[in-house]
Amino acid sequence: MSATIEKQENGNATLKVKIEKEQFDQALNKAYQKNKYRYTIPGFRKGKAPRKIIEAHYGKDVFTDDAIEIAFPDVFQKAVEELDIQPVGQPAVTKIDEVGPEGVTLTVDVPLAPEVKLGDYKGAKVEKFDKEVTDEELNTEIDKLRDQNARMNSVEDTEAKVGDSVVVDLTTYNKDGEKIEEEAKNETITLNPEGQNDVISKHFVGAKAGDEVKFDVPVPQEYHDQFGTDQLTYQAKVNEVLQKEVPEFDDDFVMDISEFDTVDEFKNDLKKSLQEKKTAQLRNEAANKAFQFARDNAEFTISEYLIEDEARSQLNNMVRGLKNQGIELDQYMQIMGMTQDQLVEDAKRNARAAIETEVLFDEIAKAEEIVLDEEEKNAKLEEYAKQYEKTVDELKELLGDQGVEYMLVGALRDKVIDYLLDNAEIVEEIVETEE
């Protein structure tokens, strides 16, 4: 057979395929055998009228559509092999161009696998990622540890300040004075005006144990229906004011929270750990910039069908995840302040990005002949097996062939990132300029 193709800018292709006369005649006979009992012809019992008689009564094309449906799968598969293309969705016959003595010619639209034309992907400018941990960074981490191990002491006749906590009995009313929530007993509120509860906590700054505090909080428009009001009134009794006592950073503190006996030992170990984290973080940022450089310089052709299919899959996964948390999709959209159309468009953007990422990794690996040899595959499987606390054989049985292949794809992508960083321009610092 002879098939032709015209690729479209939208990632689809238009094919011209032909069902040869002999194959089409066979398909017509199959369509006749399948449908002959549906037709009533005077002088013939149902199912006994010859094909030509039925065609004469009901039209010569009476079996054409069914015949095309019967013959098309084989014809399309041969066209795919002949044209060496990769369809990613169901083909659609958009036009029957000709039904003649030589057979049938069809116009077919089909979404193709995504393609990428590589641009520059070497020479990305990235910041060095082996920067030393500074004393300031080390001291900040130590302060966090001290704060995490602080004690909260109850104080009397002392005004609460930012950073303290208050223990309160809290009752909520609507603006008509009707109670809408039962009293919350001994609720602990941290006084952090820049934190999550800033609209509530700021009203307790200056309060003492035994004080009564009353204040109003406006309800955002999107929550009016949920609360049935545009304003909430809080009535609280302050039971305690708690002040934070931060421990000194000394040998006793170090022995309490770690396996070390001295401040110096602890600081050396902490600095080593911070160095590993900092290097990993900076390397990850450099890798993202190097890959984004390659993405920005590439040209992608992706079928809308594939984008919509991937977006649909992502949304289905998200809905399942939300339901596992007891959240309905409508609630999620309300929380996020999104309409359904915005949610779908967001999913399509994410889908396009995911597809671009996949094909770009694959194309760079192909261009640079980056592969995993057997030794690297085995080493990666050993590494993953240790993470799962299993043997390699147990891991393979757990994941199956598809799961193992997925893991190795990740390992191959790591090699591509290594290649991009090896071929990047490493600089001390990148100064971002405003456009």
- CATH top level label of the largest domain: Mainly Alpha
Overall 3D shape: extended
Order of helices and strands: EEHHHEEEEHEEEHEHEHHEHHHHHE
Structural class: alpha+beta
Care to give the gist of this entry?
The chain is an alpha+beta fold. It has helices spanning 21-35, 51-58, 64-83, 135-148, 198-201, 224-227, 251-257, 263-296, 304-324, 329-336, 340-367, 374-387, 392-422; strands spanning 4-7, 12-20, 92-100, 103-111, 115-117, 125-127, 151-155, 165-174, 179-190, 212-218, 231-245, 299-301, 425-427. The strands form 4 sheets. Strands 7, 8, 9, 10 and 11 form a 5-stranded antiparallel sheet that branches. A 4-stranded antiparallel sheet has the order 1-2-4-3.
What would your notes on this structure say?
48% of the residues lie in helices and 21% in strands. It has 435 residues and is of the alpha+beta class. Strands 7, 8, 9, 10 and 11 form a five-stranded antiparallel β-sheet that branches. The chain has three domains: 4-111, Trigger factor ribosome-binding domain (Alpha-Beta Plaits, 2-Layer Sandwich), CATH 3.30.70; 151-245, Roll (Chitinase A, domain 3); 256-427, Orthogonal Bundle (Trigger factor, domain 2). The protein has 13 helices and 13 strands. It is extended. Helix 1 packs across helix 3 (64-83), helix 8 packs across helix 13 (392-422) and helix 9 crosses helix 11 (340-367). The chain has helices at residues 21-35, 51-58, 64-83, 135-148, 198-201, 224-227, 251-257, 263-296, 304-324, 329-336, 340-367, 374-387, 392-422, and strands at 4-7, 12-20, 92-100, 103-111, 115-117, 125-127, 151-155, 165-174, 179-190, 212-218, 231-245, 299-301, 425-427.
